[in-house]
Amino acid sequence: MMKINVKAPAKINLSLDALYKRPDNYHELEMVMTTIDLADRLQLVLLEKDTIKLDVKAHFIPDDKRNLVYQAAALLKERFSIKQGVAITLDKSIPVAAGLAGGSSDAAAALKGLNQIWGLQLTLTELANLGAELGSDIPFCLYGGTALATGRGEIIKPLPMMPNCWIVLAKPSISVSTPGVYRDLRVGEVEHPNTAGMVQAIQDGSFEGICDNIGNVLETVTLAKHPEVKRIKEKMLEFGADTALMSGSGPTVFALVKQYSRAKRVYNGLRGFCEEVYLVRPWQEEK
Ligand code: ATP
Fold first, then answer.
1. What is the CB neighbour count within 10 angstroms for residue 20?
2. Does 32 sit in the ligand 1 pocket, CB within 6 Å?
3. CB atoms closer than 10 angstroms to residue 188
4. What positions does the domain GHMP kinase N-terminal occupy (predicted)?
């Protein structure tokens, strides 16, 4: 029986800028993203029968065509006329609808795993092009590590690894609609983060440079609408975070902290305010 396990790590946005609205109604984006050590797990088992089976070990997440993992399998099957099947088990750890690209990372992991199990021999670039058909964050999730993402987010330029630090994540129990946040964004009226500065900081391996250039243009929308997100960010800074920022369209906020003792203080402090709090590190590629 051919069986493989794949990890699907979450991402955070070290910077997120929307430059302008394009004729196709998407925003032209500039994002610096990095994968973190908080991951879903997928197990893929090859089936000789021509079918896609998906078992999701989490509540309230669809296990049918609405799931990005299912869509990834269906896309490969259709595009390459695959007559074999697969049984996928998805074990969720990444908070859902959080701004951490959980679904996109699951889809990326499924594409990677299926490429292996169905013997497709597709390159990373080919997988990324297929992934982009399903979601703009999927190409980044296929590359992983730290990268600059432009266009709708699907054009990826890999960058050096994030300098080591601690990351505290806190997700308030509210939901935000990503299309709604982009709809309410006024790109002409807001302060824009310095993407070039962030790229330089990553290239220099400078933790201080990262803290100086951190920024997310979508905070202007989500923080104004949800004061609890702003409060979490303020609390993180009060408890000693070196910097704090909302990831994606939110509502998750993350803090970067150099020192473990301080990270622990931020983590413990936040647990009083928020049900879902995590203390993690940047993702290290497994050898
Ligand atoms: P992003 O940062 O890309 O906006 P997100 O963290 O905000 O992602 P997800 O957790 O990826 O959001 O999922 C949002 C919605 O997508 C969920 O409400 C869920 O119904 C649907 N979905 C489809 N596939 C998945 C999946 N594999 N895991 C979680 N949600 C999924």
1. 8
2. no
3. 7
4. 67-145
114 φ, ψ to 5°? Answer: -70, -35
Q: Which residues pair with 89 in a beta bridge?
A: 43, 55
The answer to whether the CB of 137 is under 6 A from ligand 1 is yes
Domain layout of the chain by residue ranges? 3-158, 166-280
Ligand 1 midpoint to CA 67 (Å): 8
Whether cis (ω within 30° of 0) applies to the bond prior to 282 is no
Instruction: Using the atom order of ligand 1, give the atom closest to the CA of residue 71.
Output: 24
* 3-158 CATH fold: Ribosomal Protein S5; domain 2 (3.30.230)
Going by their DSSP bridges, the two strands 3-21 and 215-216 should be labelled as parallel
pLDDT in tens, 267-285: 999 998 898 999 999 998 7
Q: Superfamily for 166-280? A: GHMP kinase, C-terminal domain (3.30.70.890)
Among 273, 259, 254, residue whose Cα is nearest residue 38: 254
For the chain, the helix, strand and coil percentages under 3-state DSSP, each to the nearest 5? 35, 30, 35
Backbone angles phi and psi of 277, in degrees to 5: -130, 140
| Residue-wise burial string across 165-182, b where 16 or more C-beta atoms lie within 10 A, e elsewhere | bbbbbbbbeeebeeeebb
Pocket perturbation via mutation, ligand 1, pick of 31, 43, 68, 152 by most ligand atoms within 8 A of CB: 68
pTM value is 0.96
Distance between CA atoms of 194 and 197, rounded to whole angstroms? 5
